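A.,

Following up on our hallway conversation. Structure tokens first:
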């Protein structure tokens, strides 16, 4: 089954063709990152306009690259939530029009379910059940993936997402938006013992997390140094910051693996590209006898192939939308039908 998948929830316009949820036929991305960089973050209005400009040509390009025509498409899939509402709407409207014109099923996909499904593309042998650590720009949670469309959230951040903190700290350190990748590179040259940053333990759920205290402590440290004219060792501060984020995530994953008895652990989302987090998770989970699935870097960030992968399993479970499909800025990843 060939699915044409569309993703436009943030600052990447993406169209992919995916066969049977596992094989990427083509994966096209038009990134807007350079445009938003001068503002230090995504400007929603600009994002929506750029999606409109790019999406039609990108869909044609995807078909040409795959050596296919519109007749080869069996279904249309789209990210319908969560994201910047104007941006998501562009993809949803495009997908509705395409499904109507081609008379093919329209499959709504939750963006975070898509991030999890990126692992199905990289690892053909990966099947639920497994645990998944989702770490993106807007979400940080530990999910028990009981089946392709049946999930339970074990724990979540109670405030900021990990990626959001990477971007804020990166911005204050003068790194280009989005700061995560640059901060990661700087951290590899630093000495993490030079700075001490907090690890918080919020609430009573052992899997819940908090990052706002870490973010504030890091920003305060930078501002204080600026005020007293002290030179910050940026690389070491970045190393300490990555260490603190990893120290927040890893013990909760360990606890979840022990508690659930799951041996397979996947990681998903843009922050899954972080070298320190990848290393710590791999070593720790393998130490527990677990099998770790880390997506390759090009599948960590936003893309449409992951939407096409999850769409196949949504389709099999009967999750098909009609022309009433709407876009949502927020929505739970749990199995709510649209
Ligand atoms: O999943 P994603 O592409 O978009 C959302 O759905 O939010 O995640 C983007 C986030 C940004 O915050 C970005 O700074 C972060 O992923 N990121 C990283 C790295 N590469 C991207 N964070 C830490 N280390 C990285 N290497
Ligand atoms: Zn994303």
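Then the amino acids I'd put at each of the 338 positions:
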């Amino acid at each position: 089954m060939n699915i044409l998948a569309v993703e436009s929830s943030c600052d990447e316009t993406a169209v992919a063709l995916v066969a049977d949820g596992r094989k990427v036929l083509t994966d096209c991305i038009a990134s807007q990152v350079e445009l938003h960089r001068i503002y230090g973050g995504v400007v929603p209005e600009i994002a929506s306009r750029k999606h409109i400009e790019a999406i039609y040509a990108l869909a044609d390009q995807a078909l040409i690259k795959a050596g296919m025509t519109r007749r080869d498409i069996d279904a249309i899939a789209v990210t319908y939530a969560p994201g910047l509402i104007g941006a998501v709407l562009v993809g949803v409207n495009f997908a509705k029009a395409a499904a109507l014109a081609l008379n093919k099923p329209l499959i709504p996909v939750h963006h975070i379910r898509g991030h999890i499904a990126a692992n199905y593309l990289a690892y053909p042998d990966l099947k639920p059940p497994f645990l998944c650590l989702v770490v993106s720009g807007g979400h940080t949670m530990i999910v028990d993936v009981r089946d392709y469309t049946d999930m339970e959230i074990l724990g979540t951040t109670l405030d900021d997402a990990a990626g959001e903190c990477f971007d804020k700290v990166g911005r204050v350190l003068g790194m280009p938006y989005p700061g995560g990748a640059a901060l990661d590179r700087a951290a590899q040259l630093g000495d993490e013992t030079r700075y001490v940053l907090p690890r918080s333990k919020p609430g009573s759920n052992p899997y819940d997390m908090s990052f706002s205290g870490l973010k504030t402590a890091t920003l305060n440290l930078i501002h204080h140094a600026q005020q007293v004219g002290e030179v910050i060792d940026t690389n070491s501060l970045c190393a300490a910051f990555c260490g603190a984020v990893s120290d927040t995530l890893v013990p909760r994953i360990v606890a979840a693996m022990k508690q659930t008895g799951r041996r397979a652990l996947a990681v998903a989302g843009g922050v899954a590209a972080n070298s320190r987090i990848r290393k710590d998770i791999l070593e720790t989970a393998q130490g527990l006898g677990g099998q770790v699935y880390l997506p390759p870097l090009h599948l960590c960030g936003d893309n449409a192939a992951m939407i096409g992968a999850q769409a196949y399993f949504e389709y099999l479970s009967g999750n098909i939308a009609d022309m009433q499909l709407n876009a949502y800025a927020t929505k739970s990843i749990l199995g709510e039908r649209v």
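The chain has ten helices and ten strands. Curious whether your intuition agrees with the design.

B.
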